[in-house]
């Protein structure tokens, strides 16, 4: 793993970084397929096959045929090649521009098949997101905690582990996208990204899920029985996990029994309904959660792990990305009024 830290008051010297490829421009210009939205004769300043009007919509550079400097033309990354190679579906993205310029300066291309690359920065895209991964699984990720002043050591560590988790195949619900999933006891759940949980008497443990927990219904919450294990996980395994959080509040009890889900100070015998995922309704059913450690994908989107340097083919998985880079959502986004 390679790390580069940038503060919010300055930036790295990026002069001399090559950001365009004339060879890719030639290749793109040779592609005969028209670009949707480009009128006949429309201005195409960089001659990459995409008119300036569409480049403005895509957010690519009209003066460079290779906005992100990755040796794939903007045309190929946005529209594929000749109708026979659908690069966008395979996860190509021309818009990690600033990230790739920095990565290209400090991280040689020959290392890419063997390393993940993380950028610690203040913010990205001007928002209040804790970070983002370049797809799931992926090579690269960003940690951006400027919206909370850089964060505590625990918040930094939790966010680094969270985004790395996306890089190695984990979603916000483990194997699904159900965020704030109450029965998913993992750093990938937003409830635990900044805090961790209790484990075996230790507080603030940062970990991916090591237990499998049965499906959970918001409409029938039972504090006495808490969560149910799925074999090979046992009740004893669940009993070790405490410091659980629901609706941004840490509650008493453990994952096996006597868990004060609504934090009212008592363990209620009768079942009740409670909204866990901020949906506005208390009738969601969350699927069983996985043991993350048995499901990790270390190949970085199908390209990390080859013994021979320079090979670019994937590792043979049927689906290169579980979530393609351009479909990734910012992680743990906070409204500007709540950022502090």
From TrEMBL:
<dbReference type="Pfam" id="PF18884">
    <property type="entry name" value="TSP3_bac"/>
</dbReference>
<keyword id="KW-0106">Calcium</keyword>
<protein>
    <recommendedName>
        <fullName>Peptidase M11 gametolysin domain-containing protein</fullName>
    </recommendedName>
</protein>
<dbReference type="InterPro" id="IPR024079">
    <property type="entry name" value="MetalloPept_cat_dom_sf"/>
</dbReference>
<keyword id="KW-0964">Secreted</keyword>
<dbReference type="InterPro" id="IPR059100">
    <property type="entry name" value="TSP3_bac"/>
</dbReference>
<keyword id="KW-0732">Signal</keyword>
């Amino acid at each position: 793993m390679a790390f580069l830290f940038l503060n919010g008051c300055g930036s790295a010297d990026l002069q001399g970084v090559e950001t365009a490829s004339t060879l890719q421009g030639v290749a793109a210009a040779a592609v005969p397929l028209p670009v949707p939205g480009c009128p006949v004769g429309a201005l195409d300043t960089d001659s990459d096959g995409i008119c300036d009007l569409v480049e403005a919509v895509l957010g690519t550079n009209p003066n460079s045929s290779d906005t992100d400097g990755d040796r794939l033309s903007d045309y190929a990354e946005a529209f594929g090649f000749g109708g026979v190679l659908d690069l966008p579906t395979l996860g190509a993205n021309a818009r990690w521009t600033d990230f790739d310029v920095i990565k290209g300066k400090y991280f040689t291309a020959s290392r890419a098949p063997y390393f993940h690359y993380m950028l610690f920065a203040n913010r990205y895209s001007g928002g209040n997101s804790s970070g983002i991964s370049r797809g799931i699984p992926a090579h690269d990720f960003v940690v951006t905690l400027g919206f909370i002043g850089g964060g505590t050591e625990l918040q930094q560590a939790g966010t680094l582990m969270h985004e790395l988790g996306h890089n190695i195949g984990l979603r916000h619900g483990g194997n699904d996208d159900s965020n704030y999933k109450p029965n998913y006891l993992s750093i990938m759940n937003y409830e635990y990204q900044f805090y961790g949980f209790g484990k075996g008497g230790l507080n603030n443990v940062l970990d991916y899920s090591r237990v499998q927990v049965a499906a959970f219904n918001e409409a029938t919450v039972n504090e006495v029985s808490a969560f149910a294990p799925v074999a090979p996980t046992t009740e004893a395994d669940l009993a070790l996990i405490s410091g659980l959080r629901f609706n941004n509040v840490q509650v008493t009890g453990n994952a096996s029994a006597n868990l004060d889900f609504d934090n009212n100070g008592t363990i209620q015998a009768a079942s009740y309904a409670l909204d866990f995922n901020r949906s506005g309704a208390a009738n969601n059913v969350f699927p069983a959660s996985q043991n993350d450690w048995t499901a990790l994908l270390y190949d970085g989107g199908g390209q990390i792990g080859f013994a021979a340097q320079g090979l670019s083919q994937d590792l043979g998985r049927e689906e290169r990305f579980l979530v393609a880079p351009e479909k990734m959502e910012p992680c743990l986004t906070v409204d500007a009024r709540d950022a502090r």
